[in-house]
Amino acid sequence: MNRPSSSIVGTPMDRVDGLAKVTGQACYAADYRGDRGAAEGYIVEAPAAPGRIVRLDVEAAEQAEGVIAVITHRNAPRQRPHGMPEDAGRFTQSHALLERDRVRYFGEPIALVVAETLEQARHAAKLVEVEIDCGEGTFNPFENAASAVKPDSLDGADQVDTDKGDFDTEYAGSDHRVDADYHTSAQHAAAMEPHTTVAEWDGDDLTVHMAIQIVSSAVEAFSNTLGIDKERIRIVSPFTGGGFGSKLGIHNEAVLAALAAKAVDRPVRVVQTRRNLFSNAPHRSRHRQKLQLGADKKGRLKAIRHASLAAMARDYPFAEAPASPTRASYAVPALRTTHRVVKADIPKVDSMRAPGEAIGTLTFETAIDELAEACGIDPVEFRLRNEPDADPQTGKPFADRRLAECLRQGAADFGWQGRQAPGSRRQGRKLLGCGMATAIRPNQLNPAEAEAHLTPDGRLRVRLDMTDIGTGSYTILTQIAADALSIAPDRVTVELGDSEFPETAGSGGSFGAASSGSAVYEACREMVEQLLSRLNEQGHTVNSVSIDGDRVMTGEASVPLATLIDAGGLTVTGEIDPDNYDSGEKNYSYGAQFAEVEVDADTGEIRLRRLLGVFDAGRILNQKTARSQLMGGMIFGIGGALLEQSLMDDRYGSFMNRDFAEYHIAVNRDVPDLQVRMLAGYSEKSNPLGSKGLGELGICGAGPAIANAVYEATGIRVRKFPIHMEDLLPSLPRS
Ligand code: MOS
């Protein structure tokens, strides 16, 4: 395989869209101003569920100043039934709302007030009166464990359950064991930009400006919801202000905006409030994970059982796979994993950053720490001792696996001292402790296409429906194109986020950079081929080209582009076919995370002192954006370990802490000295760029490293996350 030459790729190039963003020129969905001014929509949420609407009085709202319409189940345009067609998958099936007089979950929209201004719409929304006849709801998966079922499928995993070897015998024959339940909280993605849509009809054609991660599935979702051809739908999303999985599929305000725009024959903008999105955008379910681990005297794993229980939103097919990393982490003869869900009357449960691994490594890597301690072995050494030669679940080889390198380099860079006696390090009131954990996350490649267009004056335009959700897509695609065509990056323009551009898999699952990047690479390779063949037709014998201004440099000659390309420019397409990179091996990105915390011996307050991660993600496409992605992930890990928690009132199925005052995400003060290290590498088997996914890698292992550090500091093993001071207070060591 020819490695692509690289002079731009890999450098810490500044974001090409940075200036547009900091000067307010970047047009996010809510910024869109069309020719016809948009009316503003405001969501009226169901104040109770599940149940039936027995009275819905919108008259006062309709009479209120500035109100254009109040859309309810009585007057909403026709839609296909929610969830149809069943086999379409969760992102593309009908997301119908306001279908009938039923309310499925607390906060579900029961009306959309459309008015001239946001203030008018919001005021009128308060005038809507509703009475709901509530039935019995199922909200808490643990209290309803008896009704748990095996989900039909699991996100990001081939199998829902796995069973290798004889768990019962190996576990019974183990010298050291861990057997405990771990709980993780519901979480909401806290993207800076709330979920937003401006919908506009032109006859039967719908244009939607929206915050979204995957443009092509949004087209299908609107098509299936509204019952119109995909050709009639255009999605525009040049900038999305963070997604974290919550914008993979379309969300409630998008459907409402489309319905309302149709009903009032005018563009309608709906921006979810921060409070809205706790029920009108997806969340991660709370989970209970039972872990049973056994090892022999020498600290070699003999048996692992990982059983996960969570809630699934009724009528929305998503179940998370926390045992997925467990299946790929350590050599073990007996490995049993199961996932069960309780169908609940709650808002949509869906992917949230590093679905599976974020909470899977949080719990499993805590249990591994417990087992290492039971064996009397340093946790780094324990992990190295159990490093597998092949995928533990399937026996397939790994495409490449540099986890041991990450562990060793991390231990050296961090100054890992080995496991200290818990509670033994103290500075004044502060109890100090260190902890570490492994990071692992599947690396994927998805189908993608890109178009490249070169003009005779030597400017390259690249188009694809990829999104930039803040990750740096514009920048890395510019770098990839510049290298592939040997053209200066300031001559390259990347255009994204439009369903009229070639289709990609969008941003998600950490596959965006590799998939879209490979498509751009292939398109530019095709451009090179075309230029070469035209040069050869003209009698030049050349096998490489570069572009310098409006000329092609061939090594032997300098040829004006205008003699090769006609005035309209040259357009080519390229695509990446993942089958060409399916080696049948297991492909992951890896890392090792090390944390130091201090715990106030009197108050139990936990402060993270430092966090270091060493990662293997193949070839790094941009040192700056990659570092930011990994750092963002690690910060998310801080949240998972210590902060983020959506609390449901289990009497009503309502989330209670619906704002940033009470839903805590890590802020500057929570983020200490944070070090990101990336191994230099090239992943031959992953894609033509040699990169591996890293968007979600930084989260994996960060939380448990912190939790394990809290244990070393205090000697208290907390098995629920986030860990709070009240979990430590009763048992803090006395000074
Ligand atoms: Mo990710 S949770 O696939 O955006």
Structure description:
A hairpin with a 5-residue loop joins strand 20 and strand 21. By secondary structure, this protein is α+β, with helices and mostly antiparallel strands. The mean pLDDT is 97. The strands form eight sheets. Strands 3-5-1-13-10-11-12 form a seven-stranded mixed beta sheet, sandwiched between helices. It has 16 helices and 32 strands. Helix 12 packs parallel to helix 13. It is 23% helix and 25% strand. It starts with 17 loop residues before the first helix and ends in a 7-residue tail after the last helix. Among the domains are: 138 residues, 2-Layer Sandwich (Aldehyde Oxidoreductase, domain 4), CATH 3.30.365.10; 213 residues, Aldehyde Oxidoreductase, domain 4, CATH 3.30.365. The protein is globular and about 75 Å long. Dioxothiomolybdenum(VI) ion binds next to loops. Dioxothiomolybdenum(VI) ion (MOS) binds next to loops.
Report the CATH topology name of one domain: Aldehyde Oxidoreductase, domain 4
Instruction: State mean pLDDT (0 to 100 scale).
Output: 97
The whole-angstrom Rg is: 27 Å
CATH architecture of one domain: 2-Layer Sandwich
Count, helices: 16
Quick synopsis:
The chain is of the alpha+beta class and 735 residues long. The protein is built from 16 helices and 32 strands. Helix 14 (623-643) crosses helix 15.
Question: Which structural traits does this protein have?
Answer:
735 residues; alpha+beta; Aldehyde Oxidoreductase, domain 4; seven-stranded mixed beta sheet; six-stranded mixed beta sheet; 32 strands; 23% helix; 25% strand; binds dioxothiomolybdenum(VI) ion
